[in-house]
Amino acid sequence: MEYLPIVFEDTNVYLPRWVIGAGSPHALIVAGVHGREHTGILVAFRLIERLRQLNVTGRVEVLPVANPLAYAAGARETPRDGLNLGESFGDAEPRSITQAMARVIGARAKSAAVILDLHAAGEARYLPHALFHRADDAQLAASAGLPFAILRTKTREGVRVGTLASMLTPQQHGLTLELGGGMTIHPDDVVLGLRAVRTILARQGFVADSPDELPPTPPARVYPSDPRNLIRATHAGAFYPTVALGASVKSGEELGLVVAFDHLEPVPLDAPMAGTVIYLRMRPGVASGETLAMIIP
């Protein structure tokens, strides 16, 4: 292990970095872009342990805590400047510590044939899945073997996706992996996430095949557009889910109860469509407009 030093004005940051193997091809795996997304971070650390036991072809570079400042604060954004590292990648001259971190990480990505950006939900639990940002990466997304994969070019807020894996040259391939709960560790999410990353590396020729590889995601679950139906809070209040993550629901079926702070009366939250529940808010307190649940057909 070594540290990549980053200096901006009076702030010094040291990114921990592991490299297993040598030469080409080069795979870059990044986690902890958002400091509270612990599942991806733990998957990255477990992957380092696993790779040390394997014969690696080429080199696999792992940055398990891409934003140490946000990680220490348990925050999505960098406390020092309030910026989101995931939206800061680019070649412009850095004007903040977050942009300086993004530039250093981006430089590591330029030589990588494969880039995996590991994320997880914040105050919710997400059914693990792969996000691909170009149609050409649909096959790579399916190779992860997660329950589903989605082509995403915009965020929930409607702006361009800014994750590291979305900023690729035509010669590179990359994915963003959403690996379950962000602020709470669920062991089964970690196990599945580790298997998915290991499976991708095997299918890309970095490590040998193994019996624990996941079968590819079925074609019907690889979506060429974003089919998610986001259900948002209409008032500040509390949300109590009554269905399980991954449940199949009918249109009109109850997903949970919402208690608005202004009148304190429980109101059922019903599914607006039939499909699979892929996202559930786990922390009860919500602000108006925040996402409570997601369903895909």
Keywords:
297 residues, alpha/beta, Aminopeptidase, 5-stranded antiparallel β-sheet, 19% helix
In words, what does this structure look like?
This protein has 297 residues and is of the alpha/beta class. The chain has 2 domains: 222 residues, Zn peptidases (Aminopeptidase), CATH 3.40.630.10; 68 residues, OB fold (Dihydrolipoamide Acetyltransferase, E2P). 19% of the residues lie in helices and 31% in strands. It contains 5 helices and 18 strands. The strands form 3 sheets. Strands 1-2-4-3-5-9-7-8-10 form a 9-stranded mixed β-sheet. A hairpin with a 5-residue loop joins β14 and β15. α1 packs across α5. It is globular. The model has no long low-confidence stretch (mean pLDDT 94).
Biggest sheet features: 9 strands, mixed
> At the first level of CATH, what is the class of the largest domain?
Alpha Beta
What percent of residues adopt helix (DSSP H or I)?
Answer: 10-25%
Average pLDDT over all residues: 94
The fold-level CATH name of the largest domain is Aminopeptidase
* Overall 3D form: globular
Number of strands: 18
